[in-house]
Design goal:
- Strands 2-1-7-3-5 form a five-stranded mixed β-sheet. The chain has a two-stranded antiparallel sheet with strand order 4-6.
- Strand 1 and strand 2 form a beta hairpin.
- The protein is α+β, with helices and mostly antiparallel strands and 87 residues long.
- It is globular.
- The chain has helices spanning 21-27, 62-67, and strands spanning 2-6, 12-15, 45-50, 53-54, 70-72, 77-78, 82-85.
- The longest helix is centred in the N-terminal third of the chain and has 7 residues, at 21-27.
- Bound molecules: FE2/S2 (inorganic) cluster.
């Protein structure tokens, strides 16, 4: 697993291997946009402040993935121990 951190409040949450980032945020009552939940629509794209996403979507372009400044919350994960999100 890995942790996500909300940039606004500094709150950190653990994302276990069986959870998605979106699930963890929803159960923490963080307001996020979701639609397809399969990495295709782009509704859940969120800016990354710090950390390296493990991109699992098919909506970001190769250039966007390489920049590591955005992530799809519904399916992507983290390569770094902590991912700070612009939330
Ligand atoms: Fe569609 Fe995440 S909800 S890409």
């Amino acid at each position: 697993g890995f942790h996500i951190q909300l940039n606004s409040t500094g709150q950190r949450f653990l994302v276990t291997p069986s959870q998605t980032i979106a699930e963890v945020l929803l159960s923490a009552k963080v307001d996020i946009m979701l639609s397809c939940e399969q990495g295709v629509c782009g509704s859940c794209i969120t800016d990354v402040i710090e950390g390296i996403p493990d991109h699992r979507d098919c909506v970001l372009t190769e250039e966007e993935r390489a920049e590591n400044t955005q992530i799809t919350l519904c399916c992507s994960r983290s390569k770094s121990p902590v991912l700070v999100l612009d939330l």
